[in-house]
């Protein structure tokens, strides 16, 4: 079974794996510069113009694997020399245009941007074109193509621009660190910083310094590592040195309980689970920040509980999300969560220790209810809120708006700011599909939602109340 | 006296919630609320012997079926 969606992810993984391998062996400071040559050992290039450029880019990837540019607060960065300076022309007519008579493109264009040359071939006036794409949709020869850069297309909040050197630039004042561009850039030129060295360091010192490292895993893990059993992933985590593994979904159960109560008291609320959504509201709709739930995210909620039980504990969150890396940099979250990493990085950690998880015995993971677990997919949080209201016997007519992806979030927020939103709860998820669409997932597939629901159904506890009963201790 | 019950995955599947609920009931019935502190922890590293329970520092393997005997022998007798 394929471990990654793309070869870009595979390349990034190899760098992370080799960097981790050297870190475990305590020799990274001596060998870091050798890693590029280890990955591209031959003289014949396979990715770029020459092996020297390939290695130069890999050296930058090693830098990202060890934490990236410390002076840049954003966890997402552009690797300048990896950016291929894609064409940035927007919609253009290609030579597939036959100069037909119908001129559907002209008719459909509401901006008068289409004209024709002496050979009746369509031309697009860039000063008038609004890049709506209507002409491309109606052309019977598919002759009109969008040459917008994949990173710009991926970034729905328009935080990516082109510098004078034609290289992609991230506007940190707009970026919400969702990672959409990271996953979409075909050259792997935009990437998330890794903090696996901190994780390795914590694990290595845990025995000597007498503290325990807890892994908190996101429920979207149910759609990942499908080449093995979930129980084997848990065994793998313990083999890496984690004391135990806890479901972030238990934190989600705790959030569903508290947030449904908060909603009935306040009358209107927006979710605080997705850090990219929260950042988006803070940047673009400051007047609506007051409506964001005061609950910590499920990750921070469960980590807080772990540290109440074990004050010397270290907590590492493992999930699908690049924005969680930004969330743990907030002081109010960082005091509970010591590091955040992705499923991609977990695969690299397993392989850096040559752990073949398919050969391990199956351990168990079962802390949360069905409702906590389905937070991983769009609509799950709203379902859990409805359940929380029902279980607590709260008298409230619940009208949720589950926003699937940041564009739907934007629409709901605009409606709310104009007093036109017909809902009393906004579930904001920046990634399409919910967390299972996160940039840090190894694979993204049609069946992922079904996998999450199936995993939810397998939970030992059937209600939120029963799942969080133990957390009253 | 401090009773700590493991609430990690393995013990949870073996009935730690039921053990906790029964202990809470017995503590209430015997009015030991001010003498016995009940708390939870994630994993004591002895998953095979779950549900793992410690009374102060002494380890006990308990199940929903044996929790009543456990309470009378190891909690009630000793607190009195």
Structure description:
The complex is a heterodimer of chains A (473) and B (80). Chain A has helices at residues 7-24, 28-31, 35-39, 51-65, 104-108, 134-138, 150-154, 180-184, 196-209, 230-240, 248-266, 275-284, 298-309, 323-327, 331-334, 343-352, 370-373, 380-391, 406-417, 448-457, 464-469; strands at 76-78, 91-93, 114-116, 122-124, 144-146, 160-162, 168-170, 190-192, 213-217, 244-247, 269-270, 314-319, 339-342, 400-404, 425-429. In chain A, the strands form six sheets. Chain A has a four-stranded parallel beta sheet with strand order 10-9-12-13, with helices on both faces. Chain A is built from 21 helices and 15 strands. Chain A is an alpha/beta fold and 473 residues long. Helix content of chain A is 40%, strand content 12%. The mean pLDDT of chain A is 95. Chain B has one domain (2-79): Glutaredoxin. Chain B is an alpha+beta fold. Chain B has helices at residues 9-13, 16-29, 67-79; strands spanning 2-6, 37-41, 52-55, 58-61. At the A-B interface, β10 of A face α1, α2 and β2 of B.
Structural class of chain A: alpha/beta
Number of domains of chain B: 1
E-strand count of chain A: 15
List low-pLDDT spans of chain A: none
Strand content of chain B: 15-25%
Kindly report the oligomeric state of this protein: heterodimer
Query: How are the strands ordered across the major sheet of chain A?
Result: 10-9-12-13
Give the number of DSSP strands of chain B.
Answer: 4
What fraction of residues of chain A sit in β-strands?
5-15%
User: Structural class of the secondary structure composition of chain B?
Assistant: alpha+beta
Cα Rg of chain A:
24 Å
Question: Portion of residues in helices of chain B?
Answer: 40-55%
Percent in helix of chain A:
40-55%
**Helical stretch tally of chain B:** 3
N to C succession of SSEs of chain B: EHHEEEH
Instruction: Give the class-level CATH name of chain B.
Output: Alpha Beta
Whole-number mean pLDDT of chain B: 94
């Amino acid at each position: 079974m394929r471990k990654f969606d793309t070869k870009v992810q595979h390349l990034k993984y190899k760098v992370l794996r080799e960097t981790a391998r050297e870190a475990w062996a305590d020799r990274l400071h001596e060998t870091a510069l050798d890693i590029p040559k280890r990955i591209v050992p031959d003289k014949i290039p396979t990715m770029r113009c020459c092996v020297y450029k390939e290695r130069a880019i890999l050296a930058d990837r090693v830098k990202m694997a060890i934490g990236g540019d410390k002076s840049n607060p954003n966890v997402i960065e552009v690797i300048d020399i990896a950016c291929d300076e894609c064409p940035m022309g927007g919609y253009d007519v290609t030579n597939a245009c036959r100069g037909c008579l119908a001129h559907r493109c002209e008719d459909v264009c509401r901006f008068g941007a289409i004209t024709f040359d002496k050979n009746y071939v369509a031309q697009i006036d860039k000063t008038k074109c609004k890049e709506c794409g209507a002409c491309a949709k109606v052309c019977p020869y598919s002759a009109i193509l969008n040459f917008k850069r994949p990173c710009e297309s991926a970034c729905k909040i328009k935080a990516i621009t082109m510098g004078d050197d034609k290289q992609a630039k991230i506007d940190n004042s707009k970026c919400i660190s969702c990672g959409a561009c990271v996953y979409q850039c075909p050259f792997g030129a935009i990437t998330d910083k890794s903090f696996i060295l901190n994780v390795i360091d914590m694990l290595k010192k845990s025995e000597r310094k007498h503290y325990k490292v807890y892994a908190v895993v996101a429920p979207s893990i149910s759609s990942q590592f499908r080449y093995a059993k979930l129980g084997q992933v848990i065994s793998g985590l313990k083999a890496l040195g984690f004391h135990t593994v806890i479901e972030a979904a238990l934190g989600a159960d705790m959030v569903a309980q508290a947030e449904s109560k908060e909603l009935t008291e306040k009358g209107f609320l927006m979710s605080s689970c997705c850090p990219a959504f929260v950042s988006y509201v803070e940047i673009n709709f400051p007047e609506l920040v007051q409506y964001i739930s005061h609950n910590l995210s499920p990750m921070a909620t469960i980590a807080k509980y772990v540290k109440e039980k074990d004050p010397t504990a270290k907590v590492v969150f493992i999930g699908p999300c690049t924005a969680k890396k930004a969330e743990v940099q907030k002081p109010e979250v960082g005091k509970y969560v010591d590091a955040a990493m992705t499923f991609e990085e977990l695969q690299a950690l397993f392989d850096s220790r040559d752990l073949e998880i398919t050969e391990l015995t199956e351990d168990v993971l079962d802390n949360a209810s069905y409702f906590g677990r389905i937070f991983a997919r769009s609509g799950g949080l709203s379902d859990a809120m409805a359940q929380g209201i029902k279980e607590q016997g709260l008298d409230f007519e619940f009208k949720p708006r589950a926003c699937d992806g940041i564009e739907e979030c934007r629409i709901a927020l605009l409606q709310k700011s104009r007093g036109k939103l017909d809902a009393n709860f906004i579930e904001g998820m920046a990634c399409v599909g919910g967390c299972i669409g996160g940039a840090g997932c190894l694979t993204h597939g049609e069946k992922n939602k079904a996998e999450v629901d199936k995993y939810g159904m397998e939970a030992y506890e059937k209600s939120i109340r029963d799942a969080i009963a133990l957390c009253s201790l | 006296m401090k009773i700590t019950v493991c609430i990690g995955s393995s013990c949870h599947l073996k009935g730690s919630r039921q053990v906790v609920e029964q202990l809470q009931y017995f503590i209430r019935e015997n009015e030991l609320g001010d003498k016995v502190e009940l708390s939870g922890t994630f994993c004591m590293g002895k998953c095979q012997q779950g549900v793992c329970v410690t009374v102060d520092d002494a380890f006990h393997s308990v199940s929903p079926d044996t929790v009543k005997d456990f309470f009378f022998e190891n909690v009630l007798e000793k607190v009195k």
